[in-house]
Amino acid sequence: MYIIVGGTGRVGSAVARTLLAEGEAVTIVTRNPEKAGAWRRRGAEVALAESTT
Question: Where does the record place the RCK N-terminal domain (predicted)?
Fold first, then answer.
């Protein structure tokens, strides 16, 4: 299992796509719930995080 913080950004999303294409289990951590659905459709788990700063 790979957990990618910042998985909706440029580098994180490229890493996530590569790992998913290789059949790896991936969890994306994001603050934006609107981006969760697209990653779930690609096969990733999604964890929503809150930032207080």
Answer: 3-52
- Whether the model clears a pTM of 0.90, i.e. scores above it, the answer is no
Q: Which candidate, 46, 18, 52, 44, places its Cα nearest to that of 32? A: 46
Q: How far apart are CA 13 and CA 46, in angstroms?
A: 13
Strand blocks (E) in 1-53: 2-5, 26-30, 45-48
User: Contact, 32 vs 13, CB < 8 A?
Assistant: no
In degrees rounded to 5, what are phi and psi of residue 41? Answer: -65, -30
Residue 1 in contact with residue 23, Cβ under 8 Å?
no
pLDDT per position as a tens digit, 4-53? 998 888 999 999 999 999 999 999 999 888 988 999 999 999 999 987 76
